[in-house]
Amino acid sequence: MTDSELEKFKKVLKDENLKLTPQRVEVFREVCNSDEHREAEEIYLALRKRDINVSRSTVYRTMDILYQYDLVQRMDIGDGKWRYEHWLNCHQHDHLICIRCGTIVEFINTQIEGIQKDVAEKFNYQLVRHVHQLFGLCKQCQDTPVSVK
Ligand SMILES: [Zn+2]
Ligand SMILES: [Zn+2]
Question: Which terminus of the chain, N or C, has less C-beta within 10 A?
């Protein structure tokens, strides 16, 4: 977690009339220092594993706020659960998701980025965020017969 990330987080908490507690900072730090795509529950468990005394509701609430203010990104990979990831100071990317094992691959395609911009301009939209997900079978799952599992 960089100083500028912490400053942004402080401002968000202030806007929400919430106190800057060590627990909330730890939630944000946990997300900032990881490149994984995790559910709030997994973030909660990771914090508990690090002996951070934080409540489940603080983690869930903090993740909601971080998302509202664009400090994290979240996505549904088809199972109805939100996976959160670090988004600040991180190059915006898209995702390829394996529908069988859930493996997530990140990619950046400048042509896709360009097309999105053109579309937004054409309809006079100012782009804030986009979600682009490709669902399929990863190489390993293609090579593994379904019956084996
Ligand atoms: Zn797979
Ligand atoms: Zn990602």
Answer: C
149 has a pLDDT exceeding 70: no
Which amino acid type is present at position 77?
I
Instruction: Please give the distance, rounded to the nearest whole angstrom, from the Cα atom of residue 96 to the centre of ligand 1.
Output: 10
Structure confidence at residue 30 (pLDDT): 95
Dist. CA 56–CA 63, nearest whole Å: 11
CA distance 132 to 19: 34
CA 97–ligand 1 middle distance (angstroms):
8
Q: With contact defined as beta carbons under 8 Å apart, do 70 and 50 qualify?
A: no
Which pTM does this prediction carry?
Answer: 0.82
Per-residue pLDDT tens digits for 54-82: 999 999 999 999 999 989 999 988 888 99
CA of 82 to the centre of ligand 1 (A): 19
Domains of the chain: 1-90 (1.10.10.10), 92-149 (3.30.1490.190)
Ligand 2 centroid distance, CA of 37 (Å): 6
